[in-house]
Automatic annotation (TrEMBL):
A GO biological process held by the record: polysaccharide catabolic process
Active-site residues annotated for this sequence: D92, D154
UniProt record similarity statement: Belongs to the glycosyl hydrolase 88 family.
Spans through the membrane: none
Protein name, per record: Glycosyl hydrolase
Amino acid sequence: MTNHVDWVEEALQKVYTKISRTSKKIGANFPHASVDGTYQLEPPHWWTAGFWPGLLWHMYRETGDETLKAIAEQCEVRLDTVITDYYKLDHDMGFMWTLTSVAHYKLTGDEEAKRRALLVANLLLGRFNCKGNYIRAWNPWFEGDENSGWAIIDCVMNLPLLFWASKETGDPRFRHAAERHGETVLAHFIRKDGSVHHIVTFDAETGEKVGAIGGQGFAPDSAWSRGAGWAIYGLALLYHYTEKDAYLQAAKSVAHFFIANLPEDFVPYWDFRLPEGVKNDRDSSAGAIAACGLLFISTLVPRTEADIYKQAGVNILRSLYERYGTWEDDGQDGLILHGTSHYPEGKNIDVPLIYGDYFFVEGLTSLKGERERFW
Ligand code: GLY
Protein backbone atom coordinates (compact mmCIF):
# COMPACT_ATOMS: atom_id res chain seq x y z
CA MET A 1 0.00 0.00 0.00
CA THR A 2 1.42 3.35 -1.01
CA ASN A 3 1.74 6.25 1.39
CA HIS A 4 -1.31 8.48 0.90
CA VAL A 5 -0.44 11.24 3.28
CA ASP A 6 1.25 13.63 0.86
CA TRP A 7 -1.45 13.90 -1.80
CA VAL A 8 -4.21 13.77 0.80
CA GLU A 9 -2.69 16.71 2.70
CA GLU A 10 -2.25 18.58 -0.55
CA ALA A 11 -5.84 17.88 -1.60
CA LEU A 12 -7.25 18.99 1.77
CA GLN A 13 -5.22 22.18 1.54
CA LYS A 14 -6.74 22.87 -1.89
CA VAL A 15 -10.22 22.16 -0.55
CA TYR A 16 -9.57 24.62 2.29
CA THR A 17 -8.28 27.32 -0.06
CA LYS A 18 -11.32 26.90 -2.27
CA ILE A 19 -14.01 26.82 0.43
CA SER A 20 -12.40 29.76 2.24
CA ARG A 21 -13.46 31.70 -0.86
CA THR A 22 -16.75 29.97 -1.77
CA SER A 23 -18.04 30.01 1.83
CA LYS A 24 -18.11 33.81 1.65
CA LYS A 25 -20.29 33.55 -1.44
CA ILE A 26 -22.51 30.60 -0.43
CA GLY A 27 -22.84 31.50 3.26
CA ALA A 28 -25.56 29.79 5.35
CA ASN A 29 -27.44 28.48 2.32
CA PHE A 30 -28.11 25.13 0.72
CA PRO A 31 -26.25 24.57 -2.55
CA HIS A 32 -27.04 21.55 -4.71
CA ALA A 33 -25.70 21.62 -8.29
CA SER A 34 -23.18 24.05 -9.72
CA VAL A 35 -24.46 25.36 -13.05
CA ASP A 36 -22.04 27.40 -15.17
CA GLY A 37 -19.71 27.57 -12.20
CA THR A 38 -22.23 28.83 -9.64
CA TYR A 39 -23.86 26.69 -6.99
CA GLN A 40 -27.64 26.84 -7.32
CA LEU A 41 -29.36 27.20 -3.95
CA GLU A 42 -32.25 25.04 -2.79
CA PRO A 43 -34.82 25.69 -0.05
CA PRO A 44 -34.00 24.19 3.37
CA HIS A 45 -36.39 21.25 2.99
CA TRP A 46 -34.53 19.87 -0.05
CA TRP A 47 -32.78 16.57 0.67
CA THR A 48 -29.34 17.99 -0.02
CA ALA A 49 -29.50 20.64 2.75
CA GLY A 50 -27.07 18.83 5.06
CA PHE A 51 -24.13 18.40 2.72
CA TRP A 52 -22.73 21.93 2.69
CA PRO A 53 -22.84 22.31 6.51
CA GLY A 54 -21.53 18.74 6.81
CA LEU A 55 -18.58 19.60 4.58
CA LEU A 56 -17.94 22.70 6.72
CA TRP A 57 -18.00 20.61 9.91
CA HIS A 58 -15.35 18.30 8.44
CA MET A 59 -13.16 21.23 7.45
CA TYR A 60 -13.70 22.89 10.83
CA ARG A 61 -12.45 19.70 12.49
CA GLU A 62 -9.38 19.66 10.21
CA THR A 63 -8.51 23.36 10.44
CA GLY A 64 -10.13 24.81 13.58
CA ASP A 65 -11.46 27.66 11.40
CA GLU A 66 -14.28 29.19 13.46
CA THR A 67 -15.76 30.94 10.41
CA LEU A 68 -16.68 27.58 8.91
CA LYS A 69 -18.21 26.40 12.19
CA ALA A 70 -20.32 29.56 12.41
CA ILE A 71 -21.77 29.02 8.92
CA ALA A 72 -22.54 25.37 9.66
CA GLU A 73 -24.37 26.42 12.85
CA GLN A 74 -26.37 29.05 10.94
CA CYS A 75 -27.42 26.42 8.38
CA GLU A 76 -28.61 24.19 11.22
CA VAL A 77 -30.71 26.99 12.70
CA ARG A 78 -32.22 27.69 9.28
CA LEU A 79 -33.32 24.05 9.10
CA ASP A 80 -35.55 24.69 12.15
CA THR A 81 -38.02 26.30 9.77
CA VAL A 82 -38.77 22.89 8.23
CA ILE A 83 -38.82 20.67 11.33
CA THR A 84 -42.53 21.45 11.71
CA ASP A 85 -43.36 21.26 8.00
CA TYR A 86 -45.20 17.95 7.82
CA TYR A 87 -45.73 18.18 4.06
CA LYS A 88 -42.13 18.80 3.06
CA LEU A 89 -40.02 16.54 5.26
CA ASP A 90 -39.38 13.03 3.97
CA HIS A 91 -37.02 10.18 4.86
CA ASP A 92 -34.02 12.27 3.81
CA MET A 93 -34.25 14.09 7.12
CA GLY A 94 -31.61 11.49 8.08
CA PHE A 95 -29.12 12.98 5.63
CA MET A 96 -30.11 16.52 6.62
CA TRP A 97 -29.81 16.34 10.38
CA THR A 98 -27.01 13.77 10.62
CA LEU A 99 -24.68 16.18 8.85
CA THR A 100 -25.88 19.23 10.78
CA SER A 101 -27.14 18.53 14.30
CA VAL A 102 -25.51 15.13 14.90
CA ALA A 103 -22.19 16.37 13.50
CA HIS A 104 -22.47 19.50 15.65
CA TYR A 105 -23.27 17.47 18.75
CA LYS A 106 -20.49 14.97 18.16
CA LEU A 107 -17.90 17.70 17.64
CA THR A 108 -18.94 20.14 20.37
CA GLY A 109 -21.43 18.44 22.69
CA ASP A 110 -24.01 21.14 21.93
CA GLU A 111 -27.23 20.17 23.76
CA GLU A 112 -29.51 22.16 21.43
CA ALA A 113 -28.12 20.23 18.46
CA LYS A 114 -28.78 16.94 20.27
CA ARG A 115 -32.38 18.00 21.03
CA ARG A 116 -32.97 18.84 17.35
CA ALA A 117 -31.53 15.54 16.14
CA LEU A 118 -33.62 13.53 18.63
CA LEU A 119 -36.78 15.33 17.55
CA VAL A 120 -36.02 14.55 13.91
CA ALA A 121 -35.24 10.90 14.75
CA ASN A 122 -38.80 10.68 16.13
CA LEU A 123 -40.16 12.09 12.88
CA LEU A 124 -38.11 9.59 10.86
CA LEU A 125 -39.35 6.74 13.06
CA GLY A 126 -42.89 7.92 12.29
CA ARG A 127 -42.37 6.97 8.63
CA PHE A 128 -41.87 3.29 9.46
CA ASN A 129 -44.40 0.89 7.97
CA CYS A 130 -44.61 -2.03 10.41
CA LYS A 131 -46.37 -4.42 8.01
CA GLY A 132 -43.80 -4.00 5.23
CA ASN A 133 -40.83 -3.27 7.53
CA TYR A 134 -39.65 -0.29 5.54
CA ILE A 135 -39.31 3.44 6.04
CA ARG A 136 -41.50 5.26 3.57
CA ALA A 137 -39.34 7.32 1.24
CA TRP A 138 -41.28 10.30 -0.02
CA ASN A 139 -44.54 12.18 0.34
CA PRO A 140 -46.90 12.58 -2.63
CA TRP A 141 -45.10 14.67 -5.28
CA PHE A 142 -48.36 16.01 -6.74
CA GLU A 143 -52.10 16.02 -6.02
CA GLY A 144 -53.35 12.42 -6.20
CA ASP A 145 -49.86 10.84 -6.13
CA GLU A 146 -49.81 7.58 -4.13
CA ASN A 147 -46.37 6.44 -2.98
CA SER A 148 -47.00 5.28 0.58
CA GLY A 149 -45.57 1.87 -0.38
CA TRP A 150 -42.28 3.15 -1.83
CA ALA A 151 -38.90 2.56 -0.23
CA ILE A 152 -35.56 3.51 -1.78
CA ILE A 153 -31.97 2.34 -1.43
CA ASP A 154 -30.74 5.82 -0.41
CA CYS A 155 -32.54 5.35 2.92
CA VAL A 156 -29.71 3.14 4.22
CA MET A 157 -27.85 6.41 4.81
CA ASN A 158 -30.77 7.77 6.87
CA LEU A 159 -30.67 4.84 9.32
CA PRO A 160 -27.61 6.02 11.31
CA LEU A 161 -29.77 8.81 12.79
CA LEU A 162 -32.00 6.11 14.29
CA PHE A 163 -29.07 4.07 15.66
CA TRP A 164 -27.64 7.27 17.14
CA ALA A 165 -30.99 8.16 18.77
CA SER A 166 -31.23 4.75 20.44
CA LYS A 167 -27.70 5.09 21.76
CA GLU A 168 -28.34 8.59 23.13
CA THR A 169 -31.73 7.85 24.69
CA GLY A 170 -31.33 4.21 25.72
CA ASP A 171 -34.64 3.57 23.93
CA PRO A 172 -34.27 0.69 21.45
CA ARG A 173 -37.35 1.57 19.32
CA PHE A 174 -35.31 3.66 16.86
CA ARG A 175 -32.77 0.87 16.40
CA HIS A 176 -35.52 -1.74 16.00
CA ALA A 177 -37.00 0.16 13.06
CA ALA A 178 -33.57 0.67 11.49
CA GLU A 179 -32.79 -3.05 11.81
CA ARG A 180 -36.08 -4.07 10.24
CA HIS A 181 -35.64 -1.64 7.36
CA GLY A 182 -32.12 -3.08 6.94
CA GLU A 183 -33.53 -6.61 6.69
CA THR A 184 -35.93 -5.41 4.00
CA VAL A 185 -33.00 -3.97 2.06
CA LEU A 186 -31.20 -7.31 2.22
CA ALA A 187 -34.30 -9.21 1.16
CA HIS A 188 -35.50 -6.99 -1.68
CA PHE A 189 -32.94 -4.44 -2.89
CA ILE A 190 -29.66 -6.29 -3.40
CA ARG A 191 -29.52 -8.46 -6.50
CA LYS A 192 -27.46 -11.65 -6.72
CA ASP A 193 -24.89 -9.96 -8.97
CA GLY A 194 -24.30 -7.14 -6.45
CA SER A 195 -26.25 -4.48 -8.32
CA VAL A 196 -29.15 -2.77 -6.51
CA HIS A 197 -32.67 -1.53 -7.13
CA HIS A 198 -33.31 2.14 -6.58
CA ILE A 199 -37.02 1.90 -5.69
CA VAL A 200 -38.88 -1.15 -4.36
CA THR A 201 -42.63 -0.86 -3.93
CA PHE A 202 -44.82 -2.55 -1.35
CA ASP A 203 -48.51 -2.74 -0.62
CA ALA A 204 -48.59 -0.26 2.25
CA GLU A 205 -51.64 -2.01 3.76
CA THR A 206 -50.42 -5.64 3.71
CA GLY A 207 -46.66 -5.07 3.45
CA GLU A 208 -46.38 -7.44 0.45
CA LYS A 209 -43.71 -6.57 -2.11
CA VAL A 210 -45.26 -5.28 -5.34
CA GLY A 211 -42.31 -4.59 -7.65
CA ALA A 212 -39.36 -2.36 -8.50
CA ILE A 213 -39.03 0.95 -10.32
CA GLY A 214 -36.00 2.40 -12.11
CA GLY A 215 -36.16 5.74 -10.31
CA GLN A 216 -32.92 7.62 -10.89
CA GLY A 217 -31.44 4.64 -12.68
CA PHE A 218 -32.11 3.95 -16.37
CA ALA A 219 -34.59 1.11 -15.81
CA PRO A 220 -35.95 -1.21 -13.09
CA ASP A 221 -33.30 -3.81 -13.96
CA SER A 222 -30.39 -1.43 -14.63
CA ALA A 223 -27.66 -0.51 -12.13
CA TRP A 224 -27.76 3.12 -10.96
CA SER A 225 -24.26 3.75 -9.71
CA ARG A 226 -25.12 6.25 -6.97
CA GLY A 227 -27.63 3.75 -5.61
CA ALA A 228 -24.77 1.25 -5.43
CA GLY A 229 -22.69 3.88 -3.63
CA TRP A 230 -25.41 4.42 -1.02
CA ALA A 231 -25.70 0.64 -0.61
CA ILE A 232 -21.96 0.07 -0.15
CA TYR A 233 -21.65 2.68 2.57
CA GLY A 234 -25.09 2.12 4.13
CA LEU A 235 -24.72 -1.67 4.38
CA ALA A 236 -21.25 -1.26 5.92
CA LEU A 237 -22.81 1.11 8.48
CA LEU A 238 -25.57 -1.43 9.15
CA TYR A 239 -22.90 -4.02 9.85
CA HIS A 240 -21.10 -1.57 12.12
CA TYR A 241 -24.27 -0.94 14.15
CA THR A 242 -25.71 -4.49 14.22
CA GLU A 243 -22.62 -6.71 13.86
CA LYS A 244 -24.71 -8.98 11.61
CA ASP A 245 -22.44 -10.60 9.06
CA ALA A 246 -25.11 -10.59 6.33
CA TYR A 247 -24.70 -6.80 6.04
CA LEU A 248 -20.95 -7.03 5.61
CA GLN A 249 -21.34 -9.75 2.98
CA ALA A 250 -23.92 -7.65 1.13
CA ALA A 251 -21.72 -4.54 1.34
CA LYS A 252 -18.84 -6.56 -0.11
CA SER A 253 -21.01 -7.99 -2.87
CA VAL A 254 -22.14 -4.51 -4.00
CA ALA A 255 -18.55 -3.26 -3.64
CA HIS A 256 -17.26 -6.05 -5.92
CA PHE A 257 -19.92 -5.24 -8.54
CA PHE A 258 -19.03 -1.55 -8.32
CA ILE A 259 -15.27 -2.05 -8.58
CA ALA A 260 -15.60 -4.54 -11.44
CA ASN A 261 -17.66 -2.04 -13.46
CA LEU A 262 -15.43 1.00 -13.03
CA PRO A 263 -13.86 2.47 -16.15
CA GLU A 264 -10.11 3.02 -16.43
CA ASP A 265 -10.04 6.23 -14.41
CA PHE A 266 -12.03 4.62 -11.54
CA VAL A 267 -14.90 7.15 -11.75
CA PRO A 268 -18.24 5.48 -12.52
CA TYR A 269 -20.79 6.10 -15.23
CA TRP A 270 -24.17 7.20 -13.87
CA ASP A 271 -25.60 3.74 -14.58
CA PHE A 272 -23.50 0.60 -15.03
CA ARG A 273 -26.06 -1.16 -17.23
CA LEU A 274 -27.02 1.12 -20.06
CA PRO A 275 -28.30 -0.01 -23.44
CA GLU A 276 -26.38 0.96 -26.58
CA GLY A 277 -26.99 4.55 -27.59
CA VAL A 278 -27.75 5.97 -24.14
CA LYS A 279 -25.21 8.59 -23.11
CA ASN A 280 -22.95 7.25 -20.40
CA ASP A 281 -22.05 10.41 -18.51
CA ARG A 282 -19.98 9.99 -15.39
CA ASP A 283 -21.36 10.42 -11.91
CA SER A 284 -18.41 11.57 -9.83
CA SER A 285 -20.68 11.78 -6.76
CA ALA A 286 -21.33 8.03 -6.97
CA GLY A 287 -17.57 7.54 -6.96
CA ALA A 288 -17.05 9.72 -3.90
CA ILE A 289 -19.85 8.02 -1.92
CA ALA A 290 -18.63 4.54 -2.85
CA ALA A 291 -15.05 5.49 -1.96
CA CYS A 292 -16.14 6.40 1.59
CA GLY A 293 -17.98 3.08 1.85
CA LEU A 294 -15.00 1.13 0.50
CA LEU A 295 -12.63 2.79 2.96
CA PHE A 296 -15.03 2.00 5.77
CA ILE A 297 -15.30 -1.66 4.68
CA SER A 298 -11.50 -1.85 4.76
CA THR A 299 -11.69 -1.14 8.53
CA LEU A 300 -14.32 -3.87 9.10
CA VAL A 301 -12.83 -6.87 7.27
CA PRO A 302 -9.83 -9.02 8.28
CA ARG A 303 -6.43 -7.44 7.50
CA THR A 304 -5.83 -9.91 4.69
CA GLU A 305 -8.80 -8.46 2.79
CA ALA A 306 -8.55 -4.82 3.81
CA ASP A 307 -6.19 -3.66 1.05
CA ILE A 308 -8.62 -4.58 -1.74
CA TYR A 309 -11.22 -2.14 -0.42
CA LYS A 310 -8.78 0.51 0.73
CA GLN A 311 -6.94 0.59 -2.59
CA ALA A 312 -10.22 0.80 -4.50
CA GLY A 313 -11.35 3.75 -2.35
CA VAL A 314 -7.99 5.48 -2.73
CA ASN A 315 -8.01 4.97 -6.51
CA ILE A 316 -11.38 6.69 -6.80
CA LEU A 317 -10.52 9.62 -4.51
CA ARG A 318 -7.13 10.18 -6.11
CA SER A 319 -8.64 10.17 -9.58
CA LEU A 320 -11.30 12.66 -8.45
CA TYR A 321 -8.56 14.86 -7.03
CA GLU A 322 -6.24 14.69 -10.01
CA ARG A 323 -8.67 14.52 -12.94
CA TYR A 324 -11.99 15.98 -11.74
CA GLY A 325 -10.89 18.68 -9.25
CA THR A 326 -11.47 22.38 -9.95
CA TRP A 327 -8.48 23.64 -7.99
CA GLU A 328 -7.21 26.11 -10.57
CA ASP A 329 -10.65 27.41 -11.56
CA ASP A 330 -11.76 30.35 -9.43
CA GLY A 331 -14.89 30.67 -11.56
CA GLN A 332 -16.19 27.31 -10.36
CA ASP A 333 -17.88 26.96 -6.92
CA GLY A 334 -17.91 23.16 -6.96
CA LEU A 335 -14.92 21.05 -5.96
CA ILE A 336 -15.48 18.01 -8.18
CA LEU A 337 -16.69 18.07 -11.79
CA HIS A 338 -18.90 15.64 -13.72
CA GLY A 339 -21.67 14.59 -11.37
CA THR A 340 -25.05 13.37 -12.61
CA SER A 341 -27.97 14.15 -10.37
CA HIS A 342 -31.05 12.82 -12.19
CA TYR A 343 -30.51 11.56 -15.71
CA PRO A 344 -34.05 10.24 -16.38
CA GLU A 345 -35.47 13.69 -15.57
CA GLY A 346 -32.64 15.44 -17.42
CA LYS A 347 -31.68 17.38 -14.29
CA ASN A 348 -28.19 18.51 -13.35
CA ILE A 349 -26.12 16.36 -15.67
CA ASP A 350 -22.33 16.73 -15.91
CA VAL A 351 -22.06 19.27 -13.08
CA PRO A 352 -20.46 19.46 -9.63
CA LEU A 353 -22.89 18.23 -6.98
CA ILE A 354 -22.71 19.17 -3.31
CA TYR A 355 -22.89 15.52 -2.17
CA GLY A 356 -19.99 14.67 -4.50
CA ASP A 357 -18.00 17.46 -2.85
CA TYR A 358 -19.11 16.37 0.62
CA PHE A 359 -18.13 12.70 0.26
CA PHE A 360 -14.87 13.63 -1.46
CA VAL A 361 -13.94 15.66 1.64
CA GLU A 362 -15.18 12.99 4.06
CA GLY A 363 -13.11 10.42 2.19
CA LEU A 364 -9.97 12.57 2.36
CA THR A 365 -10.34 13.18 6.09
CA SER A 366 -10.83 9.47 6.76
CA LEU A 367 -7.65 8.73 4.78
CA LYS A 368 -5.79 11.15 7.00
CA GLY A 369 -6.64 9.08 10.06
CA GLU A 370 -9.49 7.63 12.08
CA ARG A 371 -12.11 10.26 12.84
CA GLU A 372 -15.41 9.89 14.65
CA ARG A 373 -17.99 9.31 11.91
CA PHE A 374 -20.97 11.65 11.65
CA TRP A 375 -23.04 8.68 10.40
N1 GLY B 1 -31.16 10.68 -2.69
C1 GLY B 1 -31.27 11.05 -4.02
C2 GLY B 1 -30.04 10.91 -4.84
O1 GLY B 1 -29.14 10.17 -4.54
O2 GLY B 1 -30.00 11.56 -5.85
